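[step 3/7] fold_predict: job queued, chain A
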Amino acid sequence: MRGELSEAEIAELESDLERSSVLRLALAELARTPGEPTSDAVVDGPERLLVGRTLGEGGMATVRHGVQTNLGRPVAVKTVRKESPSGTIRLLQEARLTARLQHPNVVPVHEVIEGRAGELQVVLKQVDGLLWSSVMRDPDVLRARFGVEDALDWNLGVLVSVCNALAYAHEHGIIHRDVKPSNVMVGAFGEVYLLDWGIAATWSDLGGRDLAHVSDIPTAGTRAYMAPEQIEGDPEALGPWTDVYLLGGALYELLAGRPPHANALSAESRRRPRERVVVPLGPEVPRELAAIVAEAMAAHPEERLVSVQELRSRIVAYRIHRGSLDLVARADRRLSAAGEARAAGDAAAVERHLREAEFGFRAALEGWAENTRAREGLRAVAVERIEVALDAGDLDGALRLLADLDEPPPSLVARVRLVGAEDEARRARAVRAGWFQDAARGVHTRTVLLAVLAPFWVFGWLAIILWPPTSVRPYAAMLGGYVALGTASVFARGLAILQNHATKVIVIATAIGMLGALMWVVGADALDLPVTAAPLGMLLVFAITLVLVGLTSDRRALPLGVLSFAGFVVIAVVPRAGNVVAFTCAMLLAGGLLRNNLTLRRRVRGHAVKNSS
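[step 4/7] structure written:
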């Protein structure tokens, strides 16, 4: 540099030298550089470099358009905005650092020269393009300028290029510390450059002692994007993981349209940087990209993605398998629609949505066999089908589906067991109800009762025919004995036999008929009615009882009721034939009961033989 320093500039330089060992080394190297250009020195002016209009200004430097006259090459010329020793040293450090990063995604440094006024000039490749931040969410501009149809894929490609630049820098011990969309430029032909390495620094011994170290300026960056360790200002906490956080912030801005820490100027966010709240991404954001953001922007470095390379690999994998993932996203929506239809009770819609969801998940697996989300989706479809089967009471179907499901959810297994227990109880109730209602179920019991009571009934009436009574009392004795024998037989078999409906009807009807007839005969005896009143009243009681049974429970009793009523009419017309008519009706009644019972027994035996075969 030429000229003399003022006292204020000297004081500022001494202060800077006290704070930074790197600054002292850099200044020493400048001191070793000759102050006057030699015959082949590079200077501005018509000989080598023409400097023109301003292209842009930053916090520390100004960038102007320039032309290297000997090559006719347009270049960018970067100079310090406000001339000062510390600013010059920082610009020189940036130039040296950037020059070491010979990477396609880093703007090349052609040379560093001294201008006519003694100012430091860094000659860079001139990049014509647009800042990524100005176009990343404008599909119309992307289509018009770059022919982009898939804006998301294009933006992810830009981010991959930024990752490549950072991965290369990290390999050389350098971190950027100010990664954000406005520091990325995209050229007219798709070139991607990570700009503004002004606060980049080494974080290890790999970078070299002549470059800036993170300890020189530990707190540096853009507040809306900074990692917690940048705000805390501990140089030992800075490293490649810091750039991983910043990349996550750039991806967040791509997806959300705003920086991750838009409220970063608040005092609270500065006091507790690890407790800053990032507004969650919306449901429209692909889950895989949201997961990358979350893992890259973890508050603690040990919880983040381990490197820029891993973040890049995750993005590349998403781009490759995006078609399969899109199928999964659509299938997920069908699965959600199935749940809504199930809640609304629309079984047809549930089945339709489940079929579409299953088809989508299977198609996704065909496109990418390792798509874990598709496998999880198929599992979710199977679980939903089991739930639907349980809702419909199809326990067998639910059990078949459950058997095909690996490690089913415990809650689902518990529900299947509960429904199974309820179904078992329902089946048991149905069996009991069937036993109660089915006339064939109590056929053996009724056969035993008939075997006991029928002989007494037949012999009682034979005795009346052979020895006609002269009063109604023999009828009363026969009926009383029959009631007593029947009651004893029922108690001997157990009252449980009355749980069968058919048996209960027969027993109760018989008891009512016999007791009714007995009461009639006792009443006839009390009224001193003629002996013919006994069979007459008995057949009337039997007729009424059997008709009521036939109308309310068992239609097979109706013919027997009609027969009894016909006997009643005959006796009423021809009283002398009372015993014969009563005997005939009694035998026909016994025969009818026996016939019905034998028919049921044959049906039961035939059913048993069929089942055994």
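[step 5/7] annotate
Residues 7-126 form a domain with the Phosphorylase Kinase; domain 1 fold (CATH 3.30.200.20).
The radius of gyration is 52 Å.
exit 0
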